[in-house]
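User: Run a structure prediction on this.
Assistant: Running it now.
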Amino acid sequence: MLGNGVVGILSESVNKWERKEDLSECGLIVGVKQPKIEMIFPDRAYAFFSHTHKAQKENMPLLDKILAEKCSLYDYELIVGDHGRRLLSFGKFAGRAGMTDFLSGLGKRYLGLGYSTPFLSLGASHMYTSLAAAKSAVISVGEEIATLGLPSGICPLVFIFTGSGNVSLGAQELFKLLPHVFVEPSKLPEIFAKAKDSSQPKSKRIFQVYGCFVTSEDMVEHKDPAKRFDKSDYYAHPEHYNPVFHKKIAPYASVIVNCMYWEKRFPRLLSTQQLQDLMRQGCPLVGISDITCDIGGSIEFVNQSTSIDSPFFRYDHLNNSYHHDMEGNGVICLAVDILPTEFAKEASQHFGDILSEFIGSLASTIDIKKLPSHLSRACIVHRGALTSLYEYIRRMRNSDSEDTVDNHGNSPSKKKKNYNILVSLSGHLFDQFLINEALDIIEDAGGSFHLVKCQLGQSIGATSYSELEVGADDGAVLDQIIDSLTSLANPKKNNGIQSKKGNGISLKVSKVQESGLKKESETKSTSAVLIIGAGRVCQPVAELLASVGSISSRQWLKKCMENNFEGHCIQVLVGSLFRKDAEEV
């Protein structure tokens, strides 16, 4: 960093700043998205959304260029406040634009179905001169609904919202400008039944819409009927849960406003087959506003993104076909991936106002230790070197490199350790830098790791998931590594009481590879077994359990497979009316 206080902006157009093509005199260069590699100049500091802090392969050439040119890199995604949310984001503007655009399309869709509604007068977000103007138009629609009502044939008009972040909050902000009532998911059947009551006059107009916010608890249920939903368990082990959104929520939805984060290891919110079944059963679903624009993601049949000029496509469930009109069978889907640009002025102003608070510090500070913590933690590279918090990036990349060559100069191949186990880690691995601790454990013990899979949380609060092939030349070393990782995931208890909350990591040993053995099992924390009675039967049982609890982790995994035991180690408790007998056992 030059520290000369001169700031350059990577943008095709700028306001209030003098635009220069030559950025050579700038010490700090700021942008929004990643610049072209040729725009990385030596000894500069850069700030933008780099998408590199999780070792994303597609952006490693950019990171390499920054390192080679001895630059510094600050990532907006990592500037997080005390509340745990990003300080720089466009999420609310995406939600606001996505809601406005969908309401506009909803009017056209209902017209195609033979219903005239107040939504027909609403334009798309980019048609208004400002966010305030768009809000005013939605308010006018709401006043018309409150005065003239909606046709009973499309009611109850129920909007389902997923996601709890800024995107969902922005969408709900626009929705709340309509006359509305928010209801709990459990009340949906009651509202639907009341509206469809045959004793009610069919010509009755409805003067409000319904909103319903759903969480993971409303989307899945544990496969074991005896177990209740547990959020931490769900994020750690989604394979233990079955999807139920299509049974409990979707049958009552008119519109699904999808704002949630999703990755492949979780059940889908709605699959193509589930939608087809629902529509055949008379589901009132009219459309999907997929503001996440997660193609082929939580909503499977959203298989394409759309543009601002043509924001909708129609999925025909009867013929499993896609169309770009508002008439015919099926549901309409909005999937625009650049929604914030529809409120470009306000989104830019919002982003710029927050960024301007940081620019002075970033441009003038040479020693990152003197920066406020929320800025120093956002520095991935400083003067050509990864900072200590992000050193794991190098190790993760090295784990993927094929850097050993045989004596004959044959193509590189990765050396295999004698003992290898596939370990999956899930939780706040990157935003809380717990991945550093996990890799330290492996390397400090003399083991190795190879990154097999990495599914990344895309927002603050979302968890990440990684699979590591952990290896060691000695079985005892591998046992030590697994035990230490287990301790990291499940902090030890003092006197039977857990001293602090878990570290946000869930550990699963999913495959043991030793002498051709391939099985699945999980590492667990200490389990207690209570034996009631201290007679002759008790003694051999206690001895067997005690021996099982004292063997090594690797041996214990084998024993689990052979005997279906579920604990990692066992604490044996003996209860008896006679203290002497219990003590002897």
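The first helix runs from residue 60 to 68.
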